[in-house]
Specification:
The chain has 333 residues and is α/β, with parallel strands linked by helices. It has eleven helices and twelve strands. The protein is globular, with a radius of gyration of 21 Å. The protein starts with a strand and ends in an 11-residue tail after the last helix.
């Protein structure tokens, strides 16, 4: 059996190979491609029974039909979200689709904290100043986080991990989720979204991307936020209407923005464009704000998370090859 691994970076190869050796799955040949999976690269999966994909690979109807015609029968997602795959078509074709529903939620939660701390205390700007011999503190004024109100939108495993961190720092924690987690009760108070927006000094998004949550943060929700609040998104870029956020930043309604994801990130993230002209005008406008911090989808990027992702991905593959039902299988739409 061959498996085509798309969007494969050196670290993907390392951790998947190590996981395969530990699981005794070296007999399954892994073919790695740096390319993102889309309609143009799908033919690379010729001769493969399965494809292994990441967040920015596109598996729409055309790609899925192409893969199925090539003999692909399984799609293994190296991530929790599956908004990039047309599950209705996957179900019609009888494809086995499995994901990694939870992996080191603390990794993403800790990155959310890092973004908040960096932007709040301006440590990224201070680092550059000191290296130039500038030790002035003007423009670096932050706020003490202890006693601040933090709103967690989405109380799944990552949201809970984030809530635990801010609760431990002495923050008042508010949560919102249509399906509240009982484990949130000792950490904070569940409230309606409008109340969370109005009360929170910091709002951190930890919900999946669905038709209901697309552009959850838009012109109306931004207007309901506490003036000067910080917005943090380490979940999915399309939760946020970027155009509306830019307007809120310009109007000084939104005080600070920290994002690890971006709605149009597939054309930017996970590649070196330092010698290129970036023609995404919306992204470039975001980068002009001194109160905006952007990282390139690295919230998951810890050794422990990559080990877990690789192990679960290969277990999903083992379940498929053995004809077993996998607990991580995504149900057809």
């Amino acid at each position: 059996m061959q498996i085509a691994v798309f969007s494969a970076r050196p670290y993907d190869r390392r951790f998947l190979d190590e996981a395969a050796a530990r699981a005794g799955l070296d007999a399954i040949e892994r073919v790695y491609f740096d390319a993102t999976l889309d309609v143009h690269t799908a033919p690379l999966a010729q001769g493969c029974t399965a494809v292994c994909v990441f967040v920015n690979d596109r598996l729409d109807a055309t790609v899925l039909h192409t893969l199925h015609a090539l003999g692909v029968r399984a799609v293994l997602l190296r991530c929790a979200g599956f908004n990039n795959i047309d599950m209705a078509v996957a179900g019609q074709l009888g494809l086995f689709v499995a994901r990694v529903p939870a992996y080191s939620p603390e990794a993403v939660a800790e990155h959310a904290l890092a973004l908040v701390m960096t932007l709040n205390r301006q440590t990224h700007r201070a680092y550059n100043r000191v290296r130039e011999g500038n030790f002035m503190l003007d423009g670096l004024l932050g706020r003490t986080l202890h006693g601040r109100t933090v709103g967690i939108v989405g109380t799944g495993k990552i949201g809970l991990a984030t809530a635990r961190i801010f609760h431990g720092m002495g923050c008042t924690v508010l949560g919102h989720d249509p399906y509240p987690a009982p484990a949130f009760a000792p950490l904070g108070t569940m409230v309606a979204l409008d109340e969370l927006l109005a009360r929170a000094d910091i709002i951190s998004l930890h919900c999946p991307l669905t038709p209901q949550t697309r552009h959850l943060i838009n012109r109306d929700s931004l207007a309901r936020m506490k003036p000067g609040a910080m917005l943090v998104n380490t979940s999915r870029g399309a939760l946020v209407d970027t155009h509306a956020v830019i307007e809120a930043l310009k109007a000084r309604q939104l005080g600070q923005l920290a994002i690890d994801v971006y709605e149009q990130e597939s054309a930017l993230f996970f590649q070196d464009l330092s010698g290129e002209i970036i023609d995404d005008d919306v992204f470039q406008r975001l980068m002009t704000f001194p109160n905006v911090l952007v990282t390139g989808h690295q919230g998951f990027f810890t050794a422990e998370a990559l080990q877990e992702i690789s192990a679960i991905t290969l277990q999903n593959l083992a379940d498929f090859t053995a004809g077993r039902d996998s607990p991580n299988r995504v149900a057809a739409a």
